[in-house]
Specification:
Length: about 80
């Protein structure tokens, strides 16, 4: 199982599954990270948290704590 937290900068992935408790899933899905979404990992902050992403034409930052709850598959 690969999570968004494990992905390197410059890779494109597709979200397979979002897991966690109710509020965590809700917060992640409110950001637009739903099953099937393509995500490009832009960069990591200097200390590694947060992670900057591009999806659906938007820039987004996500905490590593939330990124470990997003199961992905590498597509590019």
């Amino acid at each position: 199982m690969t999570t968004l937290k494990d992905i390197d900068v410059g890779q494109t992935v597709r979200v397979k599954k979002v897991k966690g408790d109710g509020p965590t899933i809700r917060r992640i899905m409110d950001m637009g990270l739903t099953k099937g979404t393509k995500v490009f990992v832009r960069k990591f902050a200097p200390l590694g948290d947060p992670i900057q992403l591009s999806l659906r034409g938007f820039e987004l930052t996500i905490r590593k704590e939330d990124a470990k709850n997003i199961e992905v598959e590498v597509i590019g």
